[in-house]
Design a protein that fits this description.
Structural class: mainly alpha
Distance between the termini: 17 Å
Helix content: 55-70%
Order of helices and strands: HHHEE
Largest sheet: 2 strands, antiparallel
CATH class: Mainly Alpha
Radius of gyration: 10 Å
Shape: globular
Strand content: 5-15%
Number of strands: 2
Length: 57
């Protein structure tokens, strides 16, 4: 886990949306999703439940 990934997780959790978090972090949404998925794979837990309405912790 890197500090960057932790920053991404906190931003997504506060926004409740990958798209909004990506905009506020000034990165692309696919890059953010990939970083979160890599972190989830590394720690072997699901951090976010993804739906078409957003994400929840």
């Amino acid at each position: 886990m890197t500090l960057q990934q932790l920053k991404y997780v906190l931003e997504v959790a506060s926004k409740g949306s990958m798209n909004e978090a990506a905009r506020s972090l000034f990165i692309s949404q696919p890059r953010l999703s990939t970083a979160i998925k890599e972190l989830e794979r590394d720690v072997k837990i699901t951090i976010f439940i993804r739906t078409n309405r957003g994400v929840t912790v």
